[in-house]
TrEMBL record:
Gene3D superfamilies: lambda repressor-like DNA-binding domains, tt1808, chain A. The keyword Disulfide bond does not apply. One of its GO terms (molecular function) is endonuclease activity. SMART domains: HTH_XRE. This is Uma2 family endonuclease. Keywords: Endonuclease, Hydrolase, Nuclease.
Amino acid sequence: MNLNQLHYYKEKTGYTFEQLAKLSGVPQGTIQKIFTGETKRPRRETMQALEAVLCPDVSNRADWDDESAGWEKDYYTAGAVRESSTAYHVRKDGYTLDDYYALPDERRVELLNGVIYDMAAPSTVHQYIVTFFTSALFNYVTEKKGGCMVFPSPVDVQIDCDDRTMLQPDVVVICKRSKIINRCIMGAPDFVLEILSKSSRKMDLKLKMAKYAQAGVREYWVVDPDGEKTYVFWTDEEDLIRVYGPDEDVPVGIFENELTIPMKRLFEIVRELKGEDGQVPDGDGDESDRS
């Protein structure tokens, strides 16, 4: 279990450091050093003692350190559905944040309405676009001395503030600082950007878009590296969607269109990264079926 997981379960239980010390038998000073990150490698016995108090159902699983073998067993035998062409996991009663945080750190997933979706490792094209937008948005906010903050993925967004959805958008802008806590972002960002791939089309243009709209995201962008298009949703009351070509500068609505993103420059680099075949490697989004 990592520090983010410990923070989550501590917030959920509401235990103070003093209460944790009494219940676990771990000295209060040791606990404080672990939660502040001062202690980088806590003893295994110490972590087990804390886990036993904060999340007994998880810590008592015999397969905790067994490369998530218990999760695979859970998916295949406890009502989960996983077909060969998909990478999502459904349980009859739905998964929750307890399940999300119990997964190993190296497993990249999103939780949406109680369904767990696996995420593939990002491609170089994907990461370049994330860096490009993060830099443009960050530089604008810094220049204007604004109060908004820019976060690239991976960052958890508990968009409904419930225990059944946790998303990891590619880039987000948050203008209400109270939504930002150490563990994650609580509530809807002002701006969300997702990078489209063949495997993420349904997720980004249907499932996530519906969730973002419902949660109150002010502006949602989808960048399509293969089609060299940029889709912008909810920038004003007149148009629900605008589609921009590869040579256009795209205005950012939440900044009153003062900031424009030079997509021509972006797609020139994208073409170089895609190489001779001209196709973006399909490893920059969720692995679930997008047909």
